[in-house]
Amino acid sequence: MRNETTIILNNSQVADDIFRMTVKTKSIPQPGQFFMIKGLYGDYLLPRPISVHDYDDGKLVFLYRVNGHGTKMFSEMKQESAIQLLGPLGNGFDYESFQGKTAIIGGGIGVAPLLYLVKKLDSKNTDVFLGFKDEVYAVDDFIRTGATVKVATEDGRAGEKGYVTDLIDYSKYKTVITCGPEVMMKKIIKSCIEKKINVLASLEERMACGVGACLGCVTKTIHGNKRVCKDGPIFDGRDLII
Ligand SMILES: Cc1cc2nc3c(=O)[nH]c(=O)nc-3n(C[C@H](O)[C@H](O)[C@H](O)COP(=O)(O)OP(=O)(O)OC[C@H]3O[C@@H](n4cnc5c(N)ncnc54)[C@H](O)[C@@H]3O)c2cc1C
Ligand code: FES
Asked: Does the C-beta of 212 come closer than 6 Å to ligand 2?
């Protein structure tokens, strides 16, 4: 983990309220890790946690949705602006231990931490399921990995009409990875537990420190309270109390 002041190489809008920011970094992150990021100037004090969307040769990519004050400020930052990164943080995916065919299931901005993971996996053994309410984003980047990609939108404007969870035949998979709205992840975790499939979920909680010190981000597990920033954000679905 390092505290790094660096510069934005690119920050552009890719869909309604969705932005893609590329920054230079000296860190080498693992898939599933995140950075606490903040601009050097502005009127907010706390950094915001944003996942590693992609990484290649010193270039780190974030995919983020404008949610409130902090992310709105990120969206207004220009190329060459200075930005502060603390990270990489969190446990990340232990992807080398994945066995058999893997399903990667992302919903909405929950697709963000999954691209870099898919790039590390064997594309022949990986199926990606991406669900969106209406407008889609990042889909072409997932297709470029060579994995099989299926898309669902609630309004039917791309891919199948309906929920992404309706596209999945769980019996094909040994491992399922998910990130997205809580209701989607709960449904997926329940299905996997019933069918005895390994399931990992990338969780989100509001964070203040990002390094395990403030206990502001705890989630309940069968092993007691765990800090999403330090013990996660990746958890075994079977450990979560949902
Ligand atoms: C480990 C981790 C990785 C993340 N990765 C990404 C990512 O790659 N891309 C991305 O777009 N977002 C990501 N997020 C969510 C992102 O951090 C929040 O959207 C952001 O911090 C909100 O800050 P804000 O100042 O824009 O909004 P605020 O003004 O702080 O909040 C706006 C609204 O969002 C709610 N909110 C804020 N944070 C969260 C949260 N963590 N979970 C649920 N609701 C929240 C608030 O209650 C409020 O209603 C991640 C969060 C975590 C914990
Ligand atoms: S954000 Fe402080 S312990 Fe997790």
From this structure: yes
